[in-house]
Every structure is written in C-alpha cells, then in structure tokens.
Amino acid sequence: MTSPPRPRNATMRDIAERLGVSIKTVSNVVNDRPNVGPRTRERVQEAIRELNYRPQVGAQQMRTGTSGLITLAIPSLAGTYFSELAQAFADEAQRRRRSIMLHSTAAGREEEHSVLAGFTRVLGDGVVFNPLQIGEDLLTDLGRTIQPTVFIGEHVEEAGLPAGSDYVRTDNRRAAHDATAHLLRQGRRRLAYLGALESTEAQQEHSTSRLRLGGFHQALEGFEEARSTVQAVRTWSLDGGLAAVRTLLEEHPEVDGIVCGNDDLARGALLGLHAAGIEVPGRVAVIGHDDILEAPFTTPPLSTIDPDKRTLAATALDLLLERIDGYDWPPRVVDTPYGLVERGSTAPLR
C-alpha cells in the first residue's frame, strides 16, 4: 500500500488568505514587530494557533540574516554539571527570545575541531563553546572564528583568543583554594584531593583538573602541620568517586578531609565512606564543586562550590548577542562569581 501523503505545514500565505490580510502583516506578527493593530494581531495569533503554524528556521535566516538559534557545544550531556549548565543556557536564551541547539563534542578532539571550523554547515547565528581537548596552539593559529563565538570553561589561554570571540570563565584555581581553606578552618589537617585525571585533557595547563588541583596545593602552603595526598580517578563521575575513595581509605586511612574535583565525585565518596562505616563529617569532611541539584539532598548534605551557572550563561549569551549584532572589537574576558556553600558534610572537627 502507498503511504498517505504527509500533511503540508501551514504557511504565512495560508494565514494571510484565511484572514484576508497581507503576508507582510502576518510576518510582522510572527516576528513581533510593532506596526500591527491590536485587533489584527490578535486575529493573526489565533489563526497561527488554529493552523499550528511553525516558522521555518531556514526561511527566517534567508529573510532576516539570523535564525534565532545559538549552538551550545559542550563535552557531554552525561555529566550532571553539563546537563544543568545546558538548562541554564536554555532558560536564559528563552528570556532573550532565542533558542539553544545542543551539540555534544564527546566524540573527541576532531569533533571540537569541527566546532571551530563552523561544522559541516554553519549552525545558528553563533556558538558558545566549552572545549576540552583542542590545543591552545590551534586557537592561536586560528586567527578568527568562523562564527561569533564565546568560549566558556577552561582550556583557553587569554592571550591566544582568536578575533571574533570572547571568553567567560570562573576562577577554578581560586575556588578550589577556598574549598580547601574551608576544611583547614574546620580543623582538618590530613587532606586528600580526589580528582586527579591521567587523561591527555588533564595534562593541559588550563584543564579543570589541573587548575583545581593547583588551588588545593596553593591553600596548603604555609600549613606546615598539614599533610596531603592526591588520589587519581578514572572519571569525574559517581562511580569514579566511589572507586577512588575505597583506594584512598586503604592507602591513607588517616585522612580527615577530602576535596573533590566535582560534586559527582563527592557523591561517590560519600557512598564509599558510608559503606566503610566512616562518619561524615565526624571523622572525615567532604566538599565538592559545582553545586548540582542533588547536593543539598545527599547524606549529609554536601558542602560545595557554587559556580553560579545562571550568571555564566547570561553573561556568555549577552556577549555573543553583541557579537551577532556586529560588535567586532578585540576579544573580551569576563570572570563570573562563585560562592562557597557550607552544608552538613564539612562541620568542624570534634
């Protein structure tokens, strides 16, 4: 049997003919332009709903030069932080009457290269890009991004930013320093950093792993009585934290405070400590990083660093929209705030 033809999508012409108005009038309503009377606007909006009209992005881009779409290229949607960050971008974009198109670069270095090369085809009006594996030399050699681009995260050297781009970041070294200093103020003196990675990504000078580890070591300077160890992990995940804390407890049972690279690792550490019968925070304090939605609901509630994902998203989008609108001055670098959130997992040592 031959399949029935797919129903044709409604067009602006269909709406115009139905109401006896011009296509220009319908276009003005669709694009929220002011030169339409309130009664006519209401009639057009009602017809749009009844006919289930959806503007076609390609046609809009040809007509106006913009699509209303922004690509958010992030390493993965599997990690809790990145999924929450994507939601923050979607919410902020909606406030600006834009839509976010997600692109995962989990396939690795070549996929990140394709983002810088403008993909196979240009997607949307601009890109917010969180690189992990591209080398800083590539950015320096790039000269100029194909599309307006805002970099977020780390792995970017400020001096090597290509033209047509900006950079929004949180001071991860200082944040990890503050997390470690918090445990020191609580009387902890046998500290471990749980989160060192062995991957190529981690070897880069500006990787998240290295920056946060650097902040950990920096906070310990001057505390001669403090002792520290670094525990490697396979991945920054709940499973990675659980496996790593088991090894840590076997090799360093004296540890009384653990600074974790992110909250997923910290959640895994809490599970491992509980399974070993170790009281948190009575014997061991634990602090994470990212302030994910689950952090207040762990047992005990997890102290953490809040990187203010919404401010990061809002700042990055504002800079990108300025680029899309024609701003073409040298790259800008903006540091967004973070905060230390104290919860039950880091009470003072008794």
TrEMBL record:
Has the keyword Transcription been applied to this entry? Answer: yes
Q: Which Pfam families match?
A: LacI (PF00356), Peripla_BP_3 (PF13377)
Record's keyword terms, sorted: DNA-binding, Transcription, Transcription regulation
Task: Name the SUPFAM superfamilies for this protein.
Answer: lambda repressor-like DNA-binding domains, Periplasmic binding protein-like I
Domain HTH lacI-type intervals: 10-64
- GO MF, one example: DNA binding
Q: What is this protein called?
A: DNA-binding LacI/PurR family transcriptional regulator
Q: Which organism is it from?
A: Brachybacterium sacelli
